[in-house]
Amino acid sequence: MRRGTTAAAVAVAVSAAGLAAVAPRAEAAQAPRITRFLGERRLPHLAKFRNTTVGGFSGVDRDPRTGTWYLVSDDRWRYEPARFYTATFPIDRRTGRLGAVTLTGVHTFAKPEGGPYPGYGKPRSVDPESIRFDPVTRRLVWGNEGDRPDATHDVPLAPASVQFADVHGRYAGALTLPANARLTAAEQGPRRNAGFEGVAVTRHTISAMLEGPRYEDGAPPSPEHGASARLTVWDRSGRVRGQYAYPIDRLPARPVPADGQSDSGVSEILPIDGHRYLALERSWIEGVGYRTKLYAFDVRGASNVLARTSLRDRAPYRPVSKRLVADLTNVSRPAQNLESLAWGPRLATGECTLIAGSDDNFDKGEVTQFLGFALRGACPA
């Protein structure tokens, strides 16, 4: 928690951010809702741990049996090879109080033939953006956004992937991607830096969300319009079960200056059950900063758009339904680059705990933070 900010002050900020506005209604008693803010923990900027540089955490998850936390770094060999960390992060089941985040191990992701993946700008480089512990197989599932050339970046094509690894980082396979989710060197398929940003694992499925729209699906979000991202769902055999359109909000503010840069999309997803998820919609807007909202969405009733070439043609389809849970922008100031969601332990009150984590981009102006919340109506099945 930043200097001079008390827990009471942060609680007021949470209320002001709109948490009170998402209290359950009689007709939606089981809708996910945040009941209280549990606090914040941070890690020091550019800390060293076992000869690695700590930062860039773009995905977090927890083994519910052992309590081990897994944190994936999106460092692309700016400092060290693609890797993930293990940690302890105690949460008091009686009070919800957050303990310190303590790193306990670090592991490098290995290629199928062994050895670390190449770094940025090289063929077969990887960009880890999400990590999940799979209680069924006791392996890790991680999302690799990959890389591709575009008008401003002359880099080789590096395929995106949803991969499996053991808890030491050794390669254990990968899902076969549908053709429309594969990176290309042409203006088709996912855009650069808008690939697989979120991964979710349930007892029966594995899901991955593209951060933003494919070229064929329309332009990225702007102050005037939103966009559509695709959620791909596989069954446990690796067969694609379906693909669904997720509607991303329009930019919440205009850049300063008006022609300034922006980047907006889905930075993480987290399963509630077999059909409901939480989603982080995160925007960075030049001259404004970060803005993040937490949504719940449901794929029931949504059209399977796997066979659709485009989501912007005139043929009708039904996107997933989504509902605002909370605006997280002002929970801790200044707002950070929230890219992680993970379930913590259930509390004695029956509430479940949710952790949202930030990627500091290895930038001295940003921080690695972990925000804790108590929820009802959304505890994982």
Q: Given this structure, which CATH class is correct?
A: Mainly Beta
Q: How many domains, as an integer?
A: 1
The amount of beta strand, in percent, is 35-45%
Inertia-based shape? globular
Pfam family, one: Phytase-like
Protein name: Phytase-like domain-containing protein
Keywords: Signal
Describe what is shown at a glance.
Residues 1-28 form the signal peptide. 3% of the residues lie in helices and 40% in strands.
Describe this structure in words.
With 381 residues, the chain is mainly beta. The chain is 3% helix and 40% strand. It has a 4-stranded antiparallel β-sheet with strand order 1-22-21-20. The chain is globular and about 55 Å long.
List keywords for this structure.
381 residues, mainly beta, Tachylectin-2, Chain A, 4-stranded antiparallel beta sheet, 1 helix, disordered N terminus
